[in-house]
Write a structure and sequence with these properties.
6-stranded mixed sheet; alpha/beta; 30% helix
Length: 993
């Protein structure tokens, strides 16, 4: 291979133009230089141009290397049994330990995805796995691609692939061929296994639509590797519909079961049946993941309503007026203009018997009446949001002292689906509360108790709005303000301060409560509350007076006792005197929930309890169509909220805020409504006796019900990681419907929503595909694009991917492994291979690595550029240069002839001056500016006695010399003139004395 190449060779074309141009211009511009200097300057300029052009072309120098880098790419998919994975790990350990010191090794784990555990390096390779991969698939191609991208340059490269060869995503063959073309060899360590006995449920099929009480057939396909006896179980919502013992033959087994879905709880909607097969003999089956699947059907019939009433059981005098009104008017209400109302079923439940999230799909509308969010829970609230968004389920929330923001729905999935926000924004009337947390940090609270107490404090702070005050006191023997009462705006600062609380000494509760009273008393908040947490006893001195003062300032106190019951009587006494609640907990993990519940007491500032007649802001709103005369009765309170920008608000409060009383909007395929007052004797006592009460509420519910279509039929399936949707559209007369704009909404097992447009593939057929990589149930809704804006009907269904495709592999794919080896140019390593075989260089050519060397050319350019300037601008006396060099050379030799050149020259000059002194008079004597009197003075001074010359004033200027040469040299004209002048001055000084 040629040892050099250029990264951008197109720049080299300038070499045909620039050097001749520089030569031609240089001959004219450098004409003033000597011939030698001009030639040097011209050649330097040409060399500079060549270096600059070569640098721009990015020259690269080839270097060969014998270093080796090995990437171990290990399969962790579910198809490989756990015992085999342990064997693979032990084998890799032996290989890793025998790595030569200067070779490099790296590690990649893969399943459905690939992650690099350790890039290639000379450091020892650790098999303690730190990364987590998705084991529900095998994507060998992605793992090989990751290895090729992360190999270092300039080394021999080898990939050791450890797998069973059962790929189910992408095609590894193309990637292996690309690696071989790039000089990367692929070797294979096979992972061998073979399941001799296995049972797998391939699929379960039932009619797309069924009716309650009508029989239908369920068909199940079961695969078995041999003859076996098994029990087939069919369940719906935890209820057993059928359980039969069957005999399975080798191969495919087609089973059929007659079933009926009936009962008063059977409401219209999507029904899901779970089919499981359990072998009688455990030895007949080895993989559990593939023994069950799901079947879906749409049960037709009247739409159903789920009414979750938080008022049930809370008050003995409560009467469910809305239940009665809906039951009375569901069959009689006029809706749609045809004078008939569809039959609707109603299921009423309390806070403790709410259906599981899997069962909520059966309901066309969900009503939540005065229920705190904690009773629904996170998974159920997320389910409700996804049903409204993706399946068109209607949602109504009714107000009360435990609803909306007071019920802690802030930042929940239900709030996202509702047309109102729980926070108050841009309001003129801003109610605020104040909460002080008094936390025991004594030595007995150290550890988990204090950690959970801090977590509870932060959870309580999260409940508050930015208009509420928060303070935190930590106490032991003395109270300390951790956070003095401030508006709960800066959440991160509040969290950091709570997190910094540490443990201390004794326990003094009364002084801590006294500090809380001092902090709350001056605040203008409309509601003030204290939460006290402690695990020990304390002195009660001054407690009576303190609690009396707190009651006078309308401050309530709730207490939480933690630990043992001994000493909790004092905590209960404080709660009773503080008009609060007492909690006793043994498990510190329950503290956050209690603190959240108590913090909601402060949120009661969101309750406006004044009589008013709601103001009609939009009389043409469809939700007011059933109000005769356009007038509504008086309300006596509501929960303050903020309408979202896209919401319609036909009824508002009459105060300055104009808060929403009735709001509605479309969320995805569904519609949701917020009624911020209640439907009981507290705020809505005039409404429940109003003649239009039943008409108003029955019309509201009908408008948001999910309607089932008669002209669309949905068929769905899953093949591998891809799901398919097929819809047949036929009108009431059986004629095909073409050119429809159908949109499908798919809800994944993780409750993520994916939307796709269906394309028409036939006269009445529409199709679309979606990704089905996760294991579980996929719920599907299809709505016509033209109908979505009006909220009309959609068709619903579902499909299941019950188990990973990895559970369908019963043995290693030896044929595919052999193809990998052949395509990769490597070897298939057996178990008896020595541990160092992965580091052999057999079949690997030395690695060629090109390194950029343009920086060297650029540095040489800079040096020669300075030389070019010197040649053109600096004049050099070469005789001086030669003398300097000769002098340095003689000094370096150090022999008798190495006398200093300067001393020699001065000596010769002195001798010449002495020899010329007698032959030549000073030139200035011939000039008229030197008078004769001066000459006479000079003569007289020469006759001065030696005594006067030896005077101390003269001595410094002239000294006798014993060397004749020195005496002669000092008698030069200039020296004699200066000495004479000094002698005359000295003589005059003596006379003056």
């Amino acid at each position: 291979m040629w040892p050099m190449r250029f990264g951008q060779p197109e720049w080299l074309m300038l070499l045909f133009v620039l050097p001749p141009a520089v030569w031609w211009m240089g001959r004219r511009s450098l004409a003033g230089l000597s011939r030698v200097r001009r030639s040097c300057a011209l050649w330097l300029r040409i060399i500079l141009v060549v270096l600059l052009v070569a640098s721009l072309a990015r020259p690269q120098w080839n270097r060969s290397s014998d270093a080796l880098s090995v990437y171990f790419v290990v399969d962790l998919s579910k198809s490989i049994p756990p015992d085999n994975l342990r064997k693979v790990n032990a084998r890799l350990m032996d290989i890793v330990e025998k790595k030569p010191r200067r070779d490099m090794a790296g590690l990649i784990y893969f399943g459905a995805n690939a992650i690099c555990e350790q890039p290639p390096s000379e450091l020892p390779l650790s098999l303690d796995r730190q990364v987590v991969v998705d084991r529900n698939g095998t994507d060998i191609a992605e793992a090989l691609r990751l290895a090729s991208f992360t190999f270092p340059e300039g080394v021999r490269k080898r990939v050791v692939l450890v797998t069973d060869g059962n790929q189910n995503s992408s095609d590894a063959m193309g990637e292996i061929e690309r690696l071989r073309a790039a000089g990367i060899q692929v070797d294979v360590i096979p992972v061998e296994y073979d399941y001799k006995n296995e049972i797998m449920v391939e699929k379960a099929v039932m009619p797309d639509q069924i009716r309650a009480g009508s029989p239908f057939m369920l068909h199940v396909l079961v695969l078995s590797t041999g003859e076996a006896n098994a029990i087939v179980t069919v369940q719906h919502g935890g209820e057993f519909l059928d359980q039969s013992k069957v005999h399975l033959s080798e191969g495919a087994n087609h089973l059929s079961f007659p079933l009926v879905l009936a009962g008063k709880e059977m409401v219209a909607g999507v029904k899901t049946l779970k089919v499981s097969v359990t072998p009688v003999d455990v030895a007949d089956d080895q993989i559990d993941d593939n023994n069950s699947t799901y079947a879906f059907a749409l049960m037709t019939g009247p739409p159903s309503i789920l009414y979750i009433d938080g008022n049930l059981g809370a008050n003995d005098g409560y009467r469910p007026f809305l239940h009665e009104a809906l039951l009375k008017k569901l069959r009689l209400a006029k809706y749609g203009g045809d004078g008939k109302a569809p039959e609707v079923t109603l299921k009423v439940c309390g806070a403790y018997d709410i259906p599981a999230e899997q069962e909520l799909v059966s309901y066309s509308c969900i009503i939540i009446d005065n229920l705190a969010a904690e009773y629904l829970g996170g998974p159920r609230m997320e389910r409700i949001r996804s049903l409204v968004n993706a399946l068109g389920t209607g949602l109504v929330m009714i107000g009360g002292e435990n609803s909306f923001g007071v019920g802690n729905y802030r930042n929940t999935p239900v709030e996202e689906a509702l047309p109102v926000d729980m926070d108050l924004k841009n309001k003129k009337i801003m109610p605020s509360g104040a909460l002080i947390l008094v936390i025991d940090r004594s030595g007995s609270m150290e550890g988990e108790k204090l950690a959970q107490a801090k977590a509870a404090a932060w959870a309580a702070a999260e409940v508050l709005s930015e208009y509420d005050y928060l303070g935190v006191i930590a106490f032991d023997g003395q109270p300390e303000w951790i956070i003095k009462p401030v508006l709960a705006k800066n959440r991160s600062w509040i969290r950091s301060k709570i997190k910094a609380v540490g443990s201390g000494g004794g326990t003094e509760i009364v002084s801590a409560l006294r500090e809380a009273h001092k902090g709350l008393a001056p605040l203008t908040a409309s509601l003030k509350h204290v939460i006290l947490l402690s695990d020990g006893q304390s002195s009660d001195q001054g407690l009576e007076e303190l609690m009396s003062n707190m009651a006078r300032d309308k401050i309530t106190v709730s207490t939480v006792g933690i630990g043992e019951k001994d000493g909790q009587f004092f905590m209960q006494e404080i709660a009773n005197k503080g008009s609060g609640r007492f909690y006793f907990v043994k498990d510190p993990k329950k503290l956050p929930r209690i603190f959240i519940k108590e913090s909601l007491f402060v949120k009661r500032t969101l309750l406006f309890e004044d009589a008013f007649i709601p103001e009609v802001s939009n009389g043409r709103d469809e939700f007011l169509a059933d109000i005769h005369g356009g007038k509504v009765p008086t309300l006596y309170g509501y929960v303050a909220t903020t309408a979202k920008p896209d919401a319609d608000v036909p009824l508002v409060s009459t105060n300055e805020n104009h808060d929403p009383i009735l709001a509605h909007w479309r969320y995805g395929l569904g519609r949701s409504v917020a009624f911020t007052s209640d439907v009981k004797n507290r705020w809505g006592k005039d409404w429940i006796g109003w003649s239009g009460f039943s008409d108003f509420w029955s019309g509201l519910v009908y408008r948001i019900l999910r309607q089932e279509p008669a002209n669309l039929r949905l068929i769905s399936s899953v093949n591998g990681d891809e799901g398919k949707i097929m819809v047949h559209a036929i009108n009431d007369h059986g004629d095909p419907l073409s050119f429809l704009e159908l949109e499908a909404t798919v809800t994944t097992p993780e409750l993520k929503v994916e939307r796709l447009q269906l394309r028409q593939t036939g006269v009445c057929t529409y199709e679309g595909e979606f990704k089905a990589q996760e294991t579980g149930r996929y719920e599907i809704a299809v709505v016509e694009g033209g109908n979505r804006a009006r909220g009309n009907s959609a068709v619903y269904g579902g499909v299941a991917k019950p188990f990973s495709v990895e559970s369908t592999d019963f043995s290693a794919n030896d044929g595919m492994l052999s193809r990998f080896v052949q395509a990769g140019g490597g070897e298939l390593f057996s178990d008896n291979e020595p541990g160092d075989y992965a580091y052999r260089r057999k079949g690997l050519l030395p690695a060629d690595h090109f390194r950029d060397c343009w920086t060297i050319l650029l540095a040489l350019f800079c040096v020669l550029f300075v030389l070019d300037v010197c040649v053109r601008r600096v004049m050099i006396d070469f005789s001086e240069v030669g003398g300097f060099v000769r002098k340095r050379y003689l000094a370096w030799r150090g022999d008798g002839k190495g006398e200093d050149e300067m001393v020699r020259r001065l000596t010769e000059a002195k001798k010449r001056a002495i020899s010329e002194r007698g032959r030549k008079k000073p030139a200035f004597l011939d000039k008229g500016d030197f008078s004769a009197s001066a000459a006479v003075k000079i003569t007289e001074t020469e006759k001065l006695s030696s005594d006067s010359i030896k005077n101390d004033n003269v001595a410094p200027f002239a000294e006798a010399s014993s060397d004749p040469d020195d005496e002669q040299s000092s008698n030069t004209f200039t020296s004699r003139l200066l000495n004479a002048k000094r002698r005359v001055e000295n003589s005059e000084n003596q006379k003056s004395r």
